[in-house]
């Protein structure tokens, strides 16, 4: 059988045929031959795991930069019968689309997560000495299993994942000789809510950081990056010399062992490390002093090599934090950042900075290269991280392990053990340094921060929150909080639209983006409600702006366009004089009888009853009886004409202009030309595709 994890369509049938042979061996109880079936291979194509093994090595099939676990184990199941059944289920998920509705198998990382949940089911069956998961089809046994889950007092999320794993087994019946039919119509969510721990029945959304805490952590990180960025080459050389000093001591000891001079020692001996440290040509402290003494970084000078190594790791974590804070990227996307990730380009006279990485969500295989809008500080963070991690990445490039070569592109590395190759940050490493950074930044929770935390985190589990967030303690920072904080902050201060958040976060739908921004509207409204003077001033200014516009439209000879604009021009002589006075118009505005909303291109006199569905497609507003365009707004149509024509030319130049996009843009272009023609604004008709000018 050809073993492939990332299945192209032309070999899917071949793999499924091989899978059916495995099923045949399983049904015929030919376990001797079944146990010799290759399940996974290593990077060279050599067999890494067989069906009969107690654990399957998937390290060649997952991205170790974004996944910490690379195997699935079966030794917790004592019954061989149950262990073989669990193996068959996992095997089917690896090589057939049995675990999903689409035509491709589950991702290996997903299978690792599912296996851990399904293992809880098989431990239950093993304890009762039952022979198959199919027995859970019986209502009594299923009820007993649900009671077992109740006793475990799992959280809502954990319980839901266990029942979801069962649902996947049920849906896999087409490919498995196992017929599980769950005796309930309840969904996984419904079952989880009923059988999870009563005190953990609320999903605990990742926390958004209160403003004052966020400002302290971010300001501390930015200041640290700004301070060290000019010295990045010095830090790179320091890290290189520390490593070279160790390697010279290691080579000296290795020569002694290889020559037979030191027969009492080998590389596995506990004394090996001690002898290498003795053989180093220089003391670590002397190397550190030679680089830091007399420089602006002298205050960071420490005596021990372990302390300086920890400090270098802290620099990398701070750079990671800066990139995450100003992009909202997922952890796996941040781990895809590399030395050339920072990009700058000009668009419509504005400079846009982005970080380039790989987006894995809803993709098979390697993922898609894409970009995230960011702040200029990310450039310094990337350059600093590149310099500090340079020697570690060179070590990985020299490794004979292809996976280590692949990890050499990652910036977020640590090397706590000099005798071991560098490794990618794990979650524990990140959290330890995050905790230290929060303390250094003085990010201590007080009553004000706690009140704001409750406001911007409406979906928190109160019991969990009380355990983690308490007055007088440092903020418990985690990586995904930076993503939530980004969404809440930009929506709270109206820095970008919900659609922009969706694009930045690479979400599939707007409700998901809205979920990430939960709490932003409440915080925004509260800031206005708390300042009554500001609230009254905003209302007064809004009324006066509206009044000024209606007064000008009713009393001037200004040219107006749009259905409502043309109507007002026709009715100017018929409007009673008392309704044309500024004070009377203001009374009508305050009473809500005259309303308007300014869009990016027009005025809508339907007021706030307008749903603004056509904001992104202004040509459609021509059909609306409430549209009004004055001479000032007409200038916005000039800018839109310029932008849309540039977009069409650009997309056509890279062969990305579809028929639907062309139709959309040409409709907008023709609408802008109608407006410019009406207001006698000079323009050049766009005729890129040789349209008939008649």
Topology, please?
Layout: H1 9-27, H2 31-34, E1 38-41, E2 47-50, E3 55-57, E4 71-73, H3 80-95, H4 108-127, H5 139-152, H6 156-171, H7 188-195, H8 211-228, H9 232-258, H10 271-279, H11 284-292, H12 305-325, H13 331-334, E5 342-347, E6 350-359, E7 368-373, H14 377-388, H15 390-397, H16 402-407, E8 413-414, E9 423-424, H17 427-440, H18 447-456, H19 462-468, H20 479-492, H21 498-505, H22 510-516, H23 520-530, H24 532-555, H25 563-571, H26 582-590, E10 597-598, E11 603-604, E12 627-628, H27 631-653, H28 659-678
Antiparallel strand pairs: 1-2, 3-4, 5-6, 6-7, 8-9, 10-11, 11-12
Going across the major beta sheet, what is the strand order? 5-6-7
Number-wise, the strands total 12
Radius of gyration (Å): 32 Å
Question: Uncertain runs with pLDDT below 50, 5 residues or more?
Answer: 1-15, 690-694
The major β-sheet equals: 3 strands, antiparallel
Helical region count? 28
- Based on helices, strands and strand pairing, what is the structural class? mainly alpha
Large-scale geometry: globular
Averaged pLDDT: 85
Helical proportion, percent range = 40-55%
Question: Per DSSP, what share of the residues sits in E-state strands of 2 or more residues?
Answer: 5-15%
Q: What gap, in angstroms, lies between the N and C termini? A: 65 Å
Task: Describe it.
It is built from 28 helices and 12 strands. The chain is mainly alpha-helical. The protein folds into 4 domains: 192 residues, no CATH class; 229 residues, no CATH class; 84 residues, no CATH class; 137 residues, no CATH class. The radius of gyration is 32 Å and the shape is globular. The termini are far apart. The N terminus and C terminus are likely disordered. Keywords: DNA recombination.
